[in-house]
């Protein structure tokens, strides 16, 4: 069905048309291609950007922490606010979509997804062992050598914990390890011979480097008359010489590794992008998703929760009058088995994200999809991205706070020719003093009213802003959405799919 302008089909909660006129007949279709009311092909997005805005109330949680284990915060509008970083949100959304796809659920079911890890050598070795019957140690050594010689740096080989891990996280399609293993198996004889020479050369360089370091330590330092740029050039020259001392990996093998870790058809890489600086000829991807940090719409309120963990064996012993401790130890046997403090936060958070539909399709086309394939994948990716934006939540302390079960009070989605961030609606912190005392009342309902008033105001001044829809999981908020003054510029929907229909 050809898409028409907002207001010609869907109705708002108060029964009026989406354009707020309340008339039953749709306006005559425009014919100007620059007019947003002009009917367009279903294959062409009506607007480049899909803006998402969400309000959610969280109670006694700690979804993200700083280096000291404390809640993260920012200062906005002269008040400190709790913050949940966009990095934590993006990972939660990406993993949520990937897990659903792998489980055969959602719009991306069956599509290729990515994994961000440092363990590509181990994943390749695991495939060599399980699918091609390699010896484990030989498989790990070969996989590391092949991937390292292709351009990725690994940890110190003397440290077992990092020896077979790349120095940086690499976001690549989930089947990259399987593809690399298949190539290694197909060229097993040639690559094992090359691997032996490569490892021997590495060991010889390590011995030479150790002797040089020892000699340098025993030689009194001479006065340094060179400038820093000369020293840097000398260091680079030494590093380049070290590379040339190693036998290069065969070109077909390097090409196979680069193809395996290339973004290809991994939909989440097309959505969130990736940056891999270590290999210049491995393509990077500009993400199609923009995410903001979430922050509380009111001043930060933090509690330090004192907790006591019981020792089950101690309690059982005391309960059954079985005292195996000496009298001198009885004093230290009183109380809990462990005590401590944890910081928890509560509040109503505003968060925002944007999907660039053109960038998403561009990424998929560059990855090798046809126009039809890219359109289909982009449509599925948009549906699943919105689902993850609504449902996913960082899993920190999920067992002790049940934070992942939260549902948003309001989701507002609309299209535009540029992104729109409504953080300004909350520059003045919500005053939760009761309304009969001059305040705004509870932050959740107050924030919903602020956000919708802000959207209604902006939509009257921006002609490209259209097809606004909103979803709530809160019956109290549902009552607010019945106010035509707040919902005249948006349509109420009851499903996540309705947000982008």
Describe the structure.
The N and C termini lie close together (11 Å). α2 crosses α3 and α4 packs antiparallel against α7. This protein is an alpha+beta fold. The protein is globular and about 80 Å long. It contains 15 helices and 12 strands. 38% of the residues lie in helices and 16% in strands. Strands 1, 2, 3, 6, 7, 8, 9, 10, 11 and 12 form a 10-stranded mixed sheet that branches. The chain has a two-stranded antiparallel sheet with strand order 4-5. The N terminus is likely disordered.
Structure keywords:
501 residues, alpha+beta, 12 strands
Overall SS class: alpha+beta
Count helical runs: 15
Instruction: Give the N-to-C terminal Cα separation.
Output: 11 Å
Largest sheet: 10 strands, mixed
Q: Per DSSP, what share of the residues sits in E-state strands of 2 or more residues?
A: 15-25%
Q: Sketch the topology as an H/E string, one letter per element.
A: EEEHEHHEHHHHHEEEHEHHHEHEHHE
Q: In terms of per-residue confidence, which ranges show pLDDT below 50 for 5 or more consecutive residues?
A: 1-44
Overall pLDDT: 85
What is the compact description of this entry?
The protein is an alpha+beta fold and 501 residues long. Helix content is 38%, strand content 16%.
Task: Summarize the SSE layout with pairings.
Blueprint: E1 49-61, E2 73-76, E3 79-84, H1 86-102, E4 114-117, H2 120-132, H3 136-149, E5 170-173, H4 176-186, H5 188-218, H6 228-244, H7 251-261, H8 267-272, E6 289-291, E7 294-296, E8 302-309, H9 312-319, E9 338-356, H10 357-366, H11 371-391, H12 398-401, E10 410-416, H13 443-459, E11 466-471, H14 475-480, H15 484-487, E12 491-492
Parallel strand pairs: 11-12
Antiparallel strand pairs: 1-9, 1-10, 2-3, 3-7, 4-5, 6-9, 7-9, 8-9, 10-11
Helix pairs in contact: 1-11, 2-3, 2-4, 3-5, 4-7, 10-11
């Amino acid at each position: 069905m050809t898409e028409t302008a907002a207001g010609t089909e869907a109705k708002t909660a108060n029964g009026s048309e989406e354009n707020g006129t309340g008339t039953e007949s749709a306006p005559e279709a425009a014919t100007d291609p620059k007019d947003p009311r002009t009917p367009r092909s279903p294959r062409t997005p009506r607007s480049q950007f899909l803006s998402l805005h969400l309000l959610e109330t969280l109670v006694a949680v700690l979804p993200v922490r700083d280096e000291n284990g404390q809640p993260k915060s920012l200062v906005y509008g002269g008040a400190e606010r709790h913050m949940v970083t966009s990095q934590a949100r993006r990972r939660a959304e990406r993993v949520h979509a990937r897990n659903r796809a792998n489980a055969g659920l959602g719009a991306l079911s069956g599509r290729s997804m990515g994994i961000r890890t440092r363990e590509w050598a181990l994943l390749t070795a695991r495939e060599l062992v399980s699918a091609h019957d390699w010896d484990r140690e030989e498989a790990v050594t070969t996989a590391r050598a092949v991937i390292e010689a292709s351009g990725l740096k690994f940890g110190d080989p003397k440290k077992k914990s990092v020896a077979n891990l790349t120095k940086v996280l690499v976001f690549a399609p989930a089947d990259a390890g399987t593809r690399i293993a298949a190539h290694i198996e197909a060229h097993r004889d040639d690559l094992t011979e090359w691997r032996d020479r490569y490892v021997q050369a590495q060991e010889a360089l390590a011995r030479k480097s150790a002797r040089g370091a020892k000699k340098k330590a025993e030689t009194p330092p001479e006065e340094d008359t060179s400038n820093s740029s000369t020293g840097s050039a000398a260091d680079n020259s030494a590093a380049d010489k070290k590379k040339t001392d190693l036998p290069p990996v065969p070109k077909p093998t390097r090409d196979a590794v680069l193809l395996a870790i290339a973004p290809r058809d991994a939909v989440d890489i097309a959505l969130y992008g990736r940056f891999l600086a270590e290999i210049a000829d491995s393509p990077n991807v500009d993400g199609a998703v923009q995410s903001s940090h979430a922050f509380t719409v009111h001043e930060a309120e933090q509690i330090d929760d004192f907790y006591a963990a019981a020792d089950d064996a101690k309690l059982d012993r005391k309960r059954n009058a079985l005292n195996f401790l000496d009298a001198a130890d009885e004093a230290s046997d009183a109380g809990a088995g462990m005590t401590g403090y944890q910081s928890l936060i509560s509040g109503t958070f505003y968060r925002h994200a944007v999907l660039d539909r053109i960038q998403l399709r561009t990424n998929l086309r560059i990855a090798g999809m046809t126009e039809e394939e890219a359109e289909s994948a982009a449509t599925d990716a948009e549906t699943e991205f919105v689902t993850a934006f609504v449902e996913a939540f960082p899993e920190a302390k999920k067992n002790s706070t049940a934070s992942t079960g939260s549902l948003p009070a309001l989701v507002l989605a609309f299209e535009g020719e540029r992104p729109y961030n409504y953080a300004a609606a909350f520059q003045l912190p919500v005053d939760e003093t009761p309304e009969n005392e001059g305040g705004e009342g509870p932050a959740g309902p107050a924030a919903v009213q602020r956000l919708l008033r802000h959207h209604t105001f902006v939509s009257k001044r921006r002609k490209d802003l259209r097809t606004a829809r909103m979803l709530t999981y809160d019956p109290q908020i549902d009552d607010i959405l019945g106010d035509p003054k707040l919902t005249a510029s948006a349509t109420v929907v009851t499903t996540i799919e309705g947000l982008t229909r």
